Amino acid sequence: MAYTATSWVNGSEPAINAANLNKLEAGVVAAHEAAAAPVTWGDVSGKPSTFPPVVGTSASSAKAGNWKPAVADVTGLEAKISELEARIAALDPDGE
Hints:
The protein is mainly alpha-helical. It is 35% helix and 0% strand. The longest helix has 19 residues, at 18-36.
């Protein structure tokens, strides 16, 4: 059942009476039951279209958990290494 909130204002209707307190109680019970209910796969939103999700099926889309990329596999890494080597060489031209 959908719960409809009641706007309470001091000294104004709606009154605090059995009917309104029972409505509140029913809302709490319904929320508690909904929170405790198991969620089915069909009720899950934003899930992958396949299950289990496909991580990759080719050399370009899947890697083993222990895969270590080569320097050439990381975009811009060779240039960054060259830049750092040049900066280090400038600080210590003798290489010691």
